[in-house]
Design goal:
The strands form five sheets. The protein has a five-stranded antiparallel β-sheet, sandwiched between helices. It has a five-stranded antiparallel β-sheet with strand order 9-8-12-11-10, with helices on both faces. It has a five-stranded antiparallel β-sheet with strand order 14-13-17-16-15, with helices on both faces. It is built from 15 helices and 21 strands. It is elongated. The protein is about 45% helix and about 25% strand.
């Protein structure tokens, strides 16, 4: 009695019911795995596309800013080249002011331009109210004076102007005597013009774009802070993502993470602005970022709907299987019988395809591309990778396999099919790329749309065996006829030499005790030789299986 439940359990485990439930469980597991994989793939694609978009936006700003920095550098070089003469001549500083004013008016990216002496006192400036002011205590002047290299473009750290906006200064050294600076010329970047660059990219929800100094201090960003006309106080050090960008030693990067501990994570594309022709001591850093929460919002919605759809599908599957199990026993035999017939049909079809030796091809008239099936490659003895897919080389290489006199025939038939829609059916000798001698049958049929041939489809069939059988039938019919003047075995030797492409054919007859043989016909190098009788001993024939077979047959 205790074994009965176990026996019933064993019967259930072996029944189609358990197999169906197990299959459903496996199917749902696989479906869930595929759904998870697909969702992860969609997530990666979404991040990749967003990363590409952010990178392109950063590159647009980079290119525009590089152009503007080049213009600023040229203006600084012009002033630094002429400044010694202006500073040493009467009225020169007034001329310098006029020249710099013209440069400021002509260059939109310049806010202010000034010339300072070696001690930092302003001797010429486009804003007269600051004339005579000493700037030796400011960071940009200290950096330029410490470097004092006329070939370097010094990029000062960001600072807040009297108007309450953030910007920075570019400085060049005015060469003096004995390698010491005679002064400095600087220009202040116009944050409005550089703001236009940031505004030139289209920002999505949760996006921001910023421009910072190489030390990580941000001086311009969009959208602007709501509680300030520009930015809050510049941070004392670079944020984690800017630090990672510097550590990568790459001109552009794409990272995800938080810009600050209290902020949500973002995906940010960063680009270093440091044109090699400017020799900048510090680069500018462009960053285009978007909140990961906003990026992933569509994906989360899609994941929710797919999860609900999977749950509904699972419930319906379980309910459907439960209802169908009552009919499973009756339908099982019919299903097995149908599967058996289907399997037999598939096996027969596969075997027929392998044995038929028929290859297919298609020529697209509009795109001028050719397609070959694998069997077509095999018939030609070409490797699949030997010819570029779709290339017209298929035609030229394929035609080379025909005899020279048949190539114009094949090409003319193909051309008529393409241009006039005339099908063709040809049987021709064929030499493969490996030198195999075949006979093939090639056919083609046009496909027309609106009275115009748009495609030609065809096949190529190896009919060598059929041709050989036909040749054998023709030989036997002719050699065995009363009208044949040549002895039968001579005709047979000649036929075998031609068909098998052999230089030597010998047909022998065993004599009485089967220890001797007489040649009935010997074909060698295009002619018949005299027949002879010889002993089988010490010849390959003596130990061959045919010798034993003949010797074992009754006389």
């Amino acid at each position: 009695m205790k074994l009965k439940p176990a026996a019933q359990s064993g019967v259930f485990l072996a029944s189609p019911f358990f197999a169906a439930w197990a299959a459903l469980a496996v199917a749902l597991s696989l479906f869930a795995s595929f759904l998870a994989y697909d969702l992860n793939h969609e997530r990666e694609n979404l991040l990749r596309r967003e990363g590409e978009r952010l990178t392109i936006q950063a590159r647009v700003i980079h290119d525009h800013a590089s152009h503007q920095l080049g213009a600023l550098n040229r203006a600084l070089l012009y002033v630094s080249d002429h400044a010694p003469a202006w500073m040493d001549s009467p009225g020169g500083l007034a001329q310098a002011t006029r020249e710099m004013t013209l440069l400021v008016d002509a260059t939109a990216a310049i806010r202010t331009m000034q010339i300072m002496d070696s001690e930092g006192t302003i001797v010429a400036i486009t804003r007269p109210e600051f004339l005579g002011r000493n700037r030796s205590g400011e960071a940009f002047f200290k950096i330029a004076k410490a470097g004092a290299n006329p070939d370097t473009l010094y990029v000062g750290p960001p600072f807040r102007t009297l108007a309450g906006v953030w910007t920075l200064n570019l400085v060049r050294v005015i060469p003096g005597a004995h390698g010491k600076p005679a002064g400095f010329v600087s220009t202040t970047l116009d944050p409005v013009e550089f703001g236009f660059m940031l505004d030139s990219v289209s920002l999505s929800d949760g996006s921001r774009v910023r421009m910072g100094h190489g030390n990580g201090r941000i001086f311009l960003q969009r959208p602007e802070k709501q509680d300030d006309t520009s930015q809050p106080d510049a941070p004392a050090s670079a944020d984690a993502l800017t630090t990672r960008h510097h550590a990568s030693n790459q001109p552009q990067s794409l990272f995800s993470g938080s810009l600050a501990p209290e902020e949500p994570p973002v995906l940010i594309a960063q680009q270093t602005i440091r044109p090699p022709t400017l020799s900048m001591d510090q680069p500018l850093i462009i960053g285009v970022a978007r909140s990961l929460n906003d990026i992933m919002a569509p994906w989360r919605e899609m994941a929710l709907w797919r999860g609900m759809a999977f749950a509904l599908f699972s419930v319906l599957s379980v309910a459907g299987l439960f209802m169908l199990q009552r009919q499973l026993r009756l339908r099982d035999q019919q299903r097995l019988a149908s599967e058996k017939r289907l399997q037999e049909s598939e096996d027969l079809l596969n075997a027929s395809q392998r044995l038929s030796m028929v290859g297919g091809w298609a020529w697209n008239v509009e795109t001028q591309t050719m397609y070959w099936s694998e069997e077509t490659y095999r018939i030609h003895d070409f490797a699949l990778e030997e010819i570029e897919p779709g290339s017209t080389e298929h035609i030229s290489r394929g035609v080379e396999c025909y005899a020279p006199e048949d190539r114009p025939v094949v090409m003319a038939a193909f051309q008529r099919c393409v241009e006039e829609g005339e099908p063709y059916d040809l049987e021709l000798p064929f030499t493969t790329a490996k030198g195999r001698q075949l006979w093939i049958r090639t056919t083609a049929h046009p496909i027309c749309e609106d009275g115009k041939v748009v495609k030609v489809i065809g096949n190529i069939m190896d009919i060598t065996e059929r041709k050989q059988i036909a040749d054998i039938d023709a030989f036997l019919s002719q050699a065995g006829s009363k009208t044949s003047v040549e002895p039968f075995f001579d005709s047979l030797a000649r036929f075998l030499a031609k068909t098998l492409q052999m230089d030597y054919v010998c047909i022998d007859r065993l004599e009485g005790d089967k220890l001797n043989a007489t040649t009935l016909s010997v074909w060698h190098d295009g002619h018949f030789e005299d027949n002879v009788t010889y002993a089988l001993s010490d010849t390959p024939w003596e130990t061959s299986w045919a010798r034993k077979y003949v010797a074992s047959r009754p006389a």
